[in-house]
């Protein structure tokens, strides 16, 4: 995974200012004036976003701390593909010129980043890191599910609050523009937010004599972000190519045999480049030097990943722990085993 440099404020075209967890956080403690100075100097924010930034500096910090999670998820989902959610430390937009397109990869980036904002804010609320929210106040009293009645307790993740904040902040620029690209961005942002809510689960503790579970205390919790990532990856696979309708208010399928997109689908309008070679205009970094699997037949195979250019093979020596044995009491002793492995990497364009 490509490291996210510390101390840098990234500006996606969705106008989210991501502040990394390692950034010098001294300004957060400078009070209202410090927050205002920092927010006023973030490039690309519209007035509504600057206002929210000034009012909620700790929320901005929580979003920045969660940045690495959704980037990591994006790179996990596309780790074996020509486009592997590559990020560049030398570009203020994080994904470079890729974001100038309206491809299905960009649709995924918008959706997963919007979902990441919801997840980060809701988690910070539940952990008591924010003054503006805490646990979901609507989860009180008694309720019931398929197993019977239960009492609300614990700390339910306040996803509704996080979704409202994400919508207010992330969507502010798109709502100001209201062109075809903005409509797609808004749609994909919302699809990402809905994906987090989709996987809310009910977690419970039993109370009673000898674990009889005569009384249950339950709370609503977000699932691991991997489930959101898996869901959005499937939506990427089935993304719908669209055109804006004649009124400029919604979408029609770009081709007659395509389905009309639902609110949960990802939408795009431009075909993707093949990502085989470096192309600054399309934002492709190419696949030269990528490690491929010589014996595979899927997307990570040397034939597919290297785009038919061939691959180089290098024999490397690796040391791993092996023949581990447990010794009473209480240690595990292992040997260092050395092995020679072949690593295959895609050739450059000739």
Automatic annotation (TrEMBL):
PANTHER family named in the record: PROTEIN WNT-2 (PTHR12027:SF86), WNT RELATED (PTHR12027)
Family from the record: Belongs to the Wnt family.
Record organism: Betta splendens
UniProt KW Glycoprotein keyword: yes
Record keywords, A-Z: Developmental protein, Disulfide bond, Extracellular matrix, Glycoprotein, Lipoprotein, Secreted, Signal, Wnt signaling pathway
PROSITE patterns given in the database record: WNT1
Superkingdom, taxonomy of origin: Eukaryota
InterPro entries: Wnt, Wnt2, Wnt_C, Wnt_CS
Record-given protein name: Protein Wnt
One cellular component term from this protein's GO annotations in UniProt: extracellular space
